[in-house]
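Quick sanity check, NFE2 factor:
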Amino acid sequence: GGARRGGARAPVPVLPIHPDAIVNLPVEDFNAALGRARLTAAELALARDIRRRGKNKVAAQKCRRRKVEALAGLREELARLGRERERLLRARGQAERALAALRRDLARVTAQVLAALRDGDGNPLRPETFGLRLAPDGELSLEGLGGG
């Protein structure tokens, strides 16, 4: 067998600028600090790599936070819409019940009015043949339904 290589890494240069400063300094200050530090090409590359990775890490954290906030906002909106839907369904049920009551009242009044009216022969008007019509102006009229 051949010789096995160990997991040893090349020594990492120690930079005279703290990693937090590398990441957080404004670009002008970062470049000025690099110029003052008189770094080798490898150290400059490392500093720029640290800055790039740090900026990316911060951007990823902000992105994740915005995503969580957006999801929370969507959950709130979904809950609000669910409550609104329930309210509208209750209102619809009330309106349907009120309409059914009005229709029953109209049928009862129509039957009473038609029972009180007579045709030319003195017979009561039949609900199958005649109906009452309420005009938009509130005037009530008798109309033939065309049956019988």
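Posting the structure with no commentary besides this: Helices lie at 19-24, 27-37, 41-116.
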